[in-house]
TrEMBL record:
GO terms for molecular function: inositol hexakisphosphate 3-phosphatase activity. This is Phytase. Pfam families: Phytase. Gene3D superfamilies: TolB, C-terminal domain. Residues 16-339 form the BPP domain. Keywords: Signal. InterPro entries: 6-blade_b-propeller_TolB-like (IPR011042), B-propeller_Phytase (IPR003431). Residues 1-19 form the signal peptide.
Amino acid sequence: MSNKAVFHFFLLIFLCACGGQVPPDATPDIITEKTLHDTDDPAIWVHPENPAQSVIFGTDKDTDGAIYAFGLDGKVIENKTLRNLKRPNNVDIEYGFAINDSVSTDIMVFTERERNQIRIFSVPDMKPLDQGGVPVFKDEKNPDYRLPMGISLYKSPIDQAVYAFVGRKSGPATGYIYQYVLESKGNGSLSARLVRKFGKFSGKKEIEAIAVDDLNGFVYYADEGVCIRKYHADPALGNEEISCFGGEYFEQDIEGIALTTWPESENYLIVSDQQRNQFNIFSARDNSFVKSINLGTVDTDGCEVTTIGLGTRFPNGLFVAMHNEREFFFYDLKMLGLP
């Protein structure tokens, strides 16, 4: 029996046991093989020549953690999986990072919480570009404020500089997010230079999910018990908060944030409403609420989306969401019913 068939079988049992509750609006096309410990956050690498060969990366959050690589069939790609990591938390992808004047590569960056650092690898060959790791929050005196969690990457349309926005497990009321510019050291490795500290924190829960709107130059992050906070991604545009929105649509925790990227139509933020086991969708144009959708996931932390068709399996794009049974669920983007 396939993973999807097993999911449908147990879903039916669950619905019967719960008195026939309304079923999900959509069910996954693919359920990945299980990780060892605790799935958290996915990232999608789109193959430039054959999108059907794209790779989904996902963190397995533990002291004996890993970044799993999955094919579009949900099977683990062992030779692209990174193991022996110390609590990898969130992960992101950026394309075309210039190593030097003649060499560029796609990169994957993730937080390694228990080592107080971020890691940088080339994709798809999975070569380390960081000489073992790049420390973050080095100036913090409180050790609890040095534990990285969320991360999102941004490439400036002005000068093609690549930035990493890094959040943490706990931190101060202001300056919670550190923004680093990633720079080539000229020897095939990269470093991260701090360019600003910004962002409010309510102090109520924590900040993990971070996402960047590359098309419009905004960074969003989830102040979990309060709202989705929005700032300019370009440090030259200042640290003033643009808005704090959406909190009233969530039961408790505001978790993973994914952004669609259609270049010539309206785009959306897809945000995990963790305790309700659903996703709330907002317009990226004005951040107004659009709708909620139940996709059958439970306790979702991270999610990610691409609007690029990935072959015959996901012709309309792909949405990936973490599920609390050590799995990631894959959906053809059409299943979300976005306008």
